Amino acid sequence: MIILSGWFAISISPSLETLFFGGSMVDWLNNDLGVSFSQRNALIVGLAMGFAVIPTIFSIAEDAIFSVPKSLSYGSLALGATPWQTMMKVVLPTASPGIFSALMIGMGRAVGETMIVLMATGNTPITDVNIFEGMRTLAANIAVEVPESEVGSTHYRILFLTGFVLFLFTFVFNTAAETVRQNLRAKYGQL
Question: How many domains does the chain have?
Answer without folding.
Answer: 2
